[in-house]
Amino acid sequence: MERGRAYTRLNTLLQHLGGSSAGAVTAHPTSGAAKFQPQQFQYTRDNNVLSLEQRQFYEENGFLVIKNLVSDADIERFRVQFERICREEVKPLGLMLMRDVSIGKSEYVPCEKMVSKVQNFQEDKELFRYCTLPEILKYVECFTGPNIMAMHTMLINKPPDTGKKTSRHPLHQDLHYFPFRPSNNIVCAWTAMEHIDRKNGCLVVFPGTHKGTLKPHDYPQWDGGVNLMFHGIQDYDKNNTRVYVTMEKGDTVFFHPLLIHGSGRNKTEGFRKAISCHFAASDCKYIDVKGTSQEKIEKEIVDLTHKFYGLETGSLKNVWTWKGRLVKGERISL
Ligand SMILES: O=C(O)CCC(=O)C(=O)O
After folding, report:
1. Atom from ligand 1 closest to the CA of residue 154
2. Name one GO cellular component term (predicted).
3. Does 299 score more than 80 pLDDT?
4. Is the CB of 169 within 6 Å of ligand 1?
5. Atom 1 in ligand 1: which residue has the minimum CA distance?
6. How far lies 273's CA from each of 155, 248, 268, 311, in Å?
7. Nearest by Cα to 266 from 170, 163, 172, 119
8. Cα atoms in the 13 Å half-sphere on the side-chain side of 181
9. Residue 139 to residues 37, 45, 50, 51: CA-CA distances in angstroms?
């Protein structure tokens, strides 16, 4: 009875808030959007962290920016550790250093300017602190529930574009790389380590595409070359609204793994930094990707893991089992 009354009150409130327009998406919830009622929510959980507007925004758009979430002090610590890693003063186990395709192998000297991305920092205590920050996990739980695995970690150091446009990240869906489901229990947290806008290559997202399915991905045919693992979608709706997500240092965007997104060229002289982690509910289940659009990426990742670490994983599932770390609650099936 009490519950019934609460829903009626909530529904009245929702009606007061009015409808939303898909054509006018901003990077943040604005008052006035109320298409859904809580019982229809499927991408967010009711744990008293997100407001109704924030939940509606994510349900509708597949991403949500939380302003000023990570402190300057923490970001400084991540930056300092990243620089130490680049100078090879520390060599965390499992860490992979990537360089932009425009930099030849012979040109490589260990310094920050040569590294476009570090990934798999699960064994680096200092960087991995990002994945355990209570302020991050508090929001992650809204999407995954209480048992949380940190599955994929990255610090992206988008270099100034050399003119070859290789600093772009093609439009893609992160689920392409993941052999676990359901997708609604996976979320990416991506934190700006400085002001990020279209000049230094902010994220661009296609709102609402998280409601679609996983599309085939492949390397784009770019004249200047494409970075390793930068698979993109060829077939996307060019008329879909695009949102360029301008962010300040510490702002964090949470987004769904089916959301089509990418990032543009870095037209500045600086190295644009962001730190991110993909989290998943620990009761997600592995799937066999053989015979699916993910078969090719499975082979590429398994081969790379062998080349890089000498590990015979044999399947995407084993790669992710090896990388995943529990950050909250209980490890169940991942
Ligand atoms: O930081 C960026 O430029 C894009 C990162 C991204 O979309 C990814 O690595 O999946």
Report:
1. 9
2. 9+0 non-motile cilium
3. yes
4. yes
5. 156
6. 7, 11, 12, 30
7. 163
8. 8
9. 20, 10, 8, 11
CA distance 200 to 287: 37
Give the chain's end-to-end CA distance (angstroms, integer): 39
Which mutation among 263, 267, 277, 297 tests ligand 1's pocket best, with the greatest number of atoms within 8 A of CB? 263
Nearest residue CA, atom 3 of ligand 1?
Answer: 263
Amino acid code (one letter) for 281: A
| 253-270 confidence digits (pLDDT tens) | 999 999 999 999 999 999
From 92-96, 106-110, 204-208, 210-214, the region with the lowest mean pLDDT: 106-110
CA pair distance 132, 134, nearest whole angstrom: 6
Question: Is the distance from the beta carbon of residue 156 to the nearest atom of ligand 1 less than 6 Å?
Answer: yes
* Pocket lining: 263 vs ligand 1, CB cutoff 6 Å: yes
| Ligand 1 contacts CB of residue 187 (under 6 A) | no
Q: Which atom of ligand 1 is nearest to the CA of 158?
A: 3
* 31-62: pLDDT as tens digits: 554 566 667 899 999 889 999 999 999 999 99
What band does 221 get if pLDDT is binned at 50, 70 and 90?
A: confident
**What is the spatial distance between Cα 51 and Cα 159, in angstroms, rounded to a whole number?**
36
CATH class of 66-328: mainly beta
How much is the pTM?
0.88
Q: Are 254 and 66 in contact (CB under 8 A)?
A: yes
